[in-house]
Every structure is written in C-alpha cells, then in structure tokens.
Amino acid sequence: MLAVDGGERVIPEGAVAPWPYILDEDRKAVLGALDQATPWHWPMKPVQELEEAWAQFTGMPYVLAANSGTAALHMAIAAAGVEPGDEVLVPADTFLASASSVLQANAIPVFVDTGIETFNIDPALVEERITGRTRAIVAVDLNGLPADYDALRRIADRHGLPLIEDAAQAHGATYRDRPVGALGTMSGASLNGSKTLSALGEGGLFATRNEEEYRLARRVLMFGEELPGQGRDYNARIMGWNYRIDVLAAAFARSQLTRLPEMSRIRRANGAALTAALDGIPGIRPPVVPEGHVYFFYPLLVEPEGLGLEDVPVEAFREAVERAVRAEGLGIMRWQPQPVPAQTLFQELRGYGRGCPWSCGHARPGHVYRPEEYPVAEEVCRRRLVLGQSFSSLGPPNDERTMRRFADVFHKVLVEERASLIALARRCAREAE
Q1: pLDDT at site 230
Q2: What CA–CA distance (Å, rounded) separates 337 from 61?
C-alpha cells in the first residue's frame, strides 16, 4: 500500500543525511573567523582567503566575494558595460536572478528557449535573438550541468559579446576538463546554503580574467567607490551597493571549498547510481547526463504516457507522483513551475514602477514576453520534479546505498503500486477541475 494511503513508508525518518555536510573543521573555521572579527575592518582575512581560494580553484585571477549569487551576477552585468536600455540574452528556464540581475542594471532581459536534453540554453536558438542592442549573453549551468560553452563562445565571439556564466548551481562541475566558474568571460556563483559549495547562509562569488572588469565590479560591490589600495576615499563614482559577504559565511564556504573535489566526485557517483537504478521504471524520465554533472538537482520529467495514461493530464500525474513520493519519505518538489518570462514581473512589465526599465526611454519599445515562444521550457516546467534539496541530497555522506533507497521509492510508486498511483492521479485530475 502506498504511504499516502496509509502504508509503511520506504525511507524512515533520518535515513537521508541533509545538506550541507558539516564537519568539525567547518565549525573550527567559523569559530576562527569569529575570533578575528574584532576590531571590525574590511576586507577581513577569511573573505580574502575565500577569494584567493576560488581564484586558485577556477584559474580566474580576479575574484570578489559578495553577499549573494544575485549580487555577483549584477556585478558581472555591470562589469560587462551593460547600460539602461541594453539587451541581455538569458535562458527562459532558470531561477529569476539570472534575469533580475539584468533589470538591476536597468537593462532588458531577452529570453532564449532551452534544450530538451540538457535543460540549458539552446545555442541553436541564441543567434536569432541577437539585435543591435544586445550587449551580453548569460548562460546558466542548470541543475549542476554546464551549458555548451564552446558553441556559445563561438556565437559570442562572432558578435563581440561577453559571455557571462551563471554558475550558481554547479560548483565543482567541469566542461571538457575546465572548471565551472571559468567557462565564460566572467562568472557569478551563489553560495546559498543549498548549493554544492555552501556558505550555510548566503554568499556569492564574482570572477573574471580582466582587471578592468574586476575594478568595475568592485565599485558595484562597495557603494560605487574606487577603493584605492586597501583604504577608502568615500567618493562614489557610480551608483553602487553594499554587497559585502558576511565573514562567518566566507569562512564556512572557504572550509567547504577544500573538500569540493571529493564532494563533487561523490555527487557524480551518486547520480550515476541513481540513474542506473531507475532504468526501466515507467512514467519518469531521468536526466541525460553529459560528462561533468554534479547534480545540484536531479531533475525528472514525468511521463504518464509511459503508463498508458493518455486520458490523465500531465499536471495531475505530476501532482500524484509528488504526493506519493513525498509520503514514502523522499523529498521531491516542483522547481520553477513556469518559465521566467511567464512570471508576473514580465507579464505585467511593472518593473521598478511605471514600467521601468521597459518604459524609461532608452529601451526599444514594444517588449512583450509571450510564454508560448519558449515551448521547450514550458514543457519542461510542466513535467519536472526534482530531487536534490536538503532532504533528498545527492551529496555526501549519502552514498550509493542511499540512491538505491531513492530508487526503491519510485519502484514502489510506479511499479508495485501502479494501480494505486493511477487512482491517485485521477483524484488529482478531479480536484483540479
């Protein structure tokens, strides 16, 4: 019997270790940073150590630690010279920050549909979105899988555009033996507590190879000031923000970074084991995995057609699978239920108010965001469920035995108790009417 109907759950409470994986060395690092925090000064040593370590890890010589991945992306957009009314290409299926960082520069996001195999921006569709107003391309390493940077780089170079990497979900991943964070002209990465490189709370990392881009990004980080040497002149050159990272978050992330290669190896092994264990289970489609994935999320597409349920709406089947899997003790959820251009912000074009930046005079008139222009992103969002948040983590100390338990849940729900799941899906369809 399904647990949602009163049966015994497959995974008992506490059997899956949460993320992030915290060791005594992490606690020691945070306590050490606490001891160094007075008298207050900036930048603090743990912040500099994190920046230096990320520079070494990625090979990007100029790094700034920020208080969020969104801040780091905004810094990259600004450092790319994006100004009001300019346009920046962004994948349609991503987290809002990939696009809102463009709005923060008073510029206009222009969306590109995603690939059905990788869920990343589709290089074949990028060029048709480029106009004379395009100033940059943002590529997102979604779910832990890098985008196709060689193809994107050829397009960006042909049009003289910077290629900005949104590496928020993929620290530790590689693309053709190159590390995430170093795949674009610049990169912005999140250190949110859920990420594969975690600051436990919030944090971000900006990285570039260019000293001038670093100088421009640092202005955005620190109130628009130039920051000559180690001092401050308290003279804002541009509109800047306070994007400084918390010292304790920096210390925790620096400690975690020392173990990132090994944690990434375990994530890859766990992802491969889960995919193998799910082989042949009908009703779901595991992700296609080119080399280098680190499984921040493990995305699954539901396929009621695989169970012969052509008369059950995909949405109702997805709802039934989610309810049943959760009841069995496995954390699963919808992530991004609609493409970003379908969100209210882009449908109503209110922006900062009075329609800015779309209506502020510098932008090309007539911007309209039509969700149907992104059919792949729409279909992915309609069918997608994800594992990989704190209570279904593919990170250590969870191992291949844990992944077999994950697969046991899907085997029970979609094979052993298929009739009960179908009945639940039909109830979900009636509830939605």
Answers
A1: 61
A2: 38
**pLDDT tens-digit readout, 147-181:** 999 999 999 999 999 999 999 999 999 999 999 99
Q: Give 130's contacts (C-beta < 8 A, 6+ positions apart).
A: 89, 155, 159, 161
Both tokens of 432, joined, read: 């939605």
Contact 290, 144 (CB under 8 A): no
Q: Is the separation of the CB atoms in 377 and 247 below 8 Å?
A: no
Distance between CA atoms of residues 140 and 131, nearest Å:
21
Count of Cβ atoms closer than 10 Å to residue 257 Cβ: 22
**Which amino acid is residue 115, in one-letter code?**
G
pTM of the prediction? 0.95
Residue 56: Cβ within 10 Å count = 12
- Label the pairing between strands 87-91 and 108-112: parallel
Q: Please answer whether residues 341 and 129 qualify as being in contact, where contact means their C-beta atoms are separated by less than 8 angstroms.
A: no
Cβ-contact 93, 339 below 8 angstroms: yes
Could you tell me the CA-to-CA distances from 170 to 145, 173, 174, 242 in Å, in that order? 6, 5, 9, 25
pLDDT in tens, 55-65: 999 999 999 99
Tell me the backbone φ, ψ of residue 285, rounded to 5 degrees: -120, 110
